[in-house]
Amino acid sequence: MGSVDRPSVLTSPAPAQPPGARVRVQKYGGTSVGDLDRLRKVAARVQRVVAGGERVAVTVSAMGRSTDELIATARELHARPNRRELDMLMATGEQVSIALLTMALQHLGVRARSLTGAQAGFLTDGVHGAARILRVDPTPLRRAFEEVDVCVIAGFQGVDADGQVTTFGRGGSDTTAVAVAAALGADTCEIFTDTDGVYTTDPHLIPSARRLEVIDYDEMLELAALGAQVLHPRSVWYGRRYGVTLHVRSSFDFRPGTLVRRVAREEALMETDRPVTGVALDMEHARIDLLGVPDEPGTAARIFGALGAAGVSADMIIQGVRGAGDSRQQMAFTVPRDLADEAMDAMAPLMTRLGGRAELDLGVAKLSIVGIAIGSAPGIAGRMFEAVAAAGANIEMIATSEVRVSVVIPAAKAQEALRRVHAAFGLERGESDESD
Ligand code: ADP
Ligand code: ASP
Ligand code: MG
To answer: In angstroms, what is the span from residue 107 Cα to ligand 2's centroid?
Structure first.
């Protein structure tokens, strides 16, 4: 990028780092910036990197649970807040944390500047609440780095071509950070969070879960998409697409965490004799049952067409087997819990026309095992179902692919089923793993 001579009156003195200094890309999640004390600690960590001769592009999330609080406030005013306005509101959470972190950095004498998603060059499509990044223009960040050593970027937001504020979906700050890394040509993006890496399952649910040293993009993408909240699925997709290694690590200590990168299949298979790499539990879906649906061509197309038109995509789908002579059948599918009302609204008029009815069940959970060798190792699904049965959970739906098996079970049995499935595949921490 051509750098023009800038009148120095516009800005503070020249940055400490030379123009060619490497840019380190980091992201701090909500818990890591949960209060002012933690914010100061993050500032001190960033300062150390600058003192070491690098510049830093830091993405931050909203503080603590403030995004949840913003949504709850919106719901007090309207049962189903307009998605554009909700984006406008949610985007403010990250704006608070970027401004405060920048102030904390400036207090330490670090030249820092905050940037909203729009200011950092994030152009997205116009899907409010689930926007996809179309392009990240690196120019604003490069320009800012001519004047400061640290750019603090608001996570999970951008603007569409129309200038409307958009957000990327819950947990989307990870994606901002990896997209920044890709735009700046960095080979690594550090994701600082409240655990010290990616585990075989959520370590807050199963304390005996084992930390992984490294995990392949494909497996991580599956785990993230199936509910392992540690990384936003799009961030993993971005990392894979642009060859950025994600380093998931703790913001509370300095030990290395888990690397998410390309792992050759042979390497992956040699590293472990276990066919399953991880187990994910997703409590964020609801089940919709359609009863008395006509068993004739075009019915599924009408149902899922109406759902799509309402902006909802179904996850797992089953179609019931009907008895001989029946002309009606049953169907069920899962949808994201926060879109369940929209889905039910879309089904109601259609069911009236079809002579059936729709029922909503919020008490379901989806449990999934992930591993690149699942498709080629016989008996894996059976072993999982046995462990689920031992937890007393009835399997309501099943979906499989080369790299995963998922079941929908009653939410009340989910924790116990997770524990048993995790143990059944030998994923618990062993004696030799006790070092940390
Ligand atoms: P942040 O606010 O830093 O983005 P998140 O809450 O989004 O943090 O993600 C970190 C959480 O993800 C952990 O506290 C943990 O409870 C959860 N989690 C779920 N699955 C896993 C997993 N396989 N490995 C590590 N953490 C996981
Ligand atoms: N603040 C947003 C959320 O809570 C984005 C993020 O934290 O990644 O979902
Ligand atoms: Mg997160």
So the answer is: 26
